Amino acid sequence: MTLSFAPPSDPSVPLHVIAQPDLEDWLTDQPDMVVNWVRANGFTGALGQALLIPGSDGTPECALAGYGKAAGRGRKRFPLAAAAETLPEGVYHIASGLPDAALNTECLGWLLAGYAFDRYAGQSPAKARLVAPSGIDGAQIEVLAQAEALTRDLVNTPTADMGPDQLQDAVEALAQEFDASCTVIRGQALLDQNFPMIHAVGRAATQDPCLIEMNWGSTGPKLTLVGKGVCFDTGGLNLKPGNSMALMKKDMGGSANVLGLARMIMALKLPLQLRVLIPAVENSVAGNAFRPGDILTSRKGLTVEINNTDAEGRLVLADALALADEGQPDLVISMATLTGAARVAVGPDLAPFYTDDDTAAGALARAGQTAADPVWRMPFHEPYETMIEPGIADLDNAPSGGFAGSITAALFLRRFVGESRYMHFDIYSWQPGKAPGRSKGGFGQGPRALLTALPEILGL
């Protein structure tokens, strides 16, 4: 699988992108043979339609890609990818019809249509390749596509092949590719070096819990990314029902998204100092599993009453966030598949985020639209702080009542960040069904928006 543009030297077929309302105007300037061929094949310009038009010798003279109507395009992230998935194998170049404002998004979608998770069985991704149009940065779009592929691969891989050990391998491979450093604190060493909640959550699993750290860059603002790496979540002693456990291989989606963002930052050589922290664990059931009613002392010294062992993600993130804050970075960003409440609030397509920085929030919202990576701001609503204060300990990991679950989780995490600017993403990182440019399964939520907004947020 190569998510890249075809070399411009390759012979390519001209591709005309035809919006449904524009078809008749386009046909007005075409010879009778083309008009007859289009009509005989029932091409209407509907979204996802594709048609090869033969020349006199039978080889393709040009191709048409249906671009539908504006309302239909508004319901798709990558409308042109629908036609890219329909076109026969070959090399194409955009000849007309695609607005300049849509070039970057649609070219990215075209590349992503070529993604397939084929580790265990053959798949059939789009095979039509595109020559990068003039006016875009083709190399940068390839970087975005390759980072997305990394995120999807990590999320899609089942836990038998993507436990804490294999997640460590993935970080080390990324570090080696970009000449970054990578260190790991594992097992008993987590207690020795004061990461008690990471150890508590992961100690019942076969693979030892660990904290993975990657560092890259020596000048510029300090950016620390913290990704939840719960490689599987049974729920612990508060065991999930089977249907709720089915997708828990994706509970490390926060770490996968963080690594996708890190890959983009390093490949594009952004002028900043990058630190990545991933607490990698499996929340399993065994005799030494942490229990409801336990009170854990965190790295920061705050005590946490465990009222549900299935609210484990915020525990491992808390120790990692405390470490992140100790480094006094200019910005800390955490990403996690943290709460079902966030899915109820905004569904699987939007990436909810929290920040106290109004300027950064505005930059991120605009970037999400530009990067075809939509985000939605949620509130750090301080009156809810009392909901996470149980009285018997400083904090409650699972407040009763069921209200504002995503907000209370975000407020919990914010307690572990001091003076550093902080953003938190409560993402889903899973595409429930196939869509243009988006295969069913793991996908990135937030990294492209963040990449686009970082220059404004950090003054790069």
Concise structural overview:
The chain is an alpha/beta fold and about 450 residues long. The chain is about 35% helix and about 20% strand.
The gyration radius over C-alpha positions equals 24 Å
Query: How much β-strand is present in the residues?
Result: 15-25%
- What is the arithmetic mean of pLDDT? 96
How many DSSP E strands?
19
Discrete helix count: 16
Helix content: 25-40%
Helix/strand-derived category reads: alpha/beta
Can you tell me the CATH superfamily of the largest domain? Zn peptidases
Number of domains: 2
Uncertain parts: none
Amino- and carboxy-terminal Cα gap: 33 Å
Principal-axes geometry comes out as elongated
Q: What's the architecture of the largest domain, going by CATH?
A: 3-Layer(aba) Sandwich
Text of the CATH class of the largest domain = Alpha Beta
- What is the CATH T-level topology of the largest domain? Aminopeptidase
Topology:
Elements: E1 13-19, H1 23-28, H2 32-40, E2 50-54, E3 60-68, H3 70-73, H4 79-84, E4 90-96, H5 103-112, E5 128-130, H6 138-156, H7 164-177, E6 181-186, H8 188-192, H9 196-202, E7 210-216, E8 222-227, E9 229-233, H10 242-245, H11 253-267, E10 273-283, E11 295-297, E12 303-305, H12 313-326, E13 331-336, H13 340-346, E14 351-355, H14 358-370, E15 375-378, E16 395-396, H15 405-414, E17 422-426, E18 430-431, E19 441-442, H16 447-458
Parallel strand pairs: 1-3, 1-4, 4-5, 8-10, 8-13, 9-10, 12-16, 13-17, 14-15
Antiparallel strand pairs: 2-3, 6-7, 7-10, 11-12, 14-17, 18-19
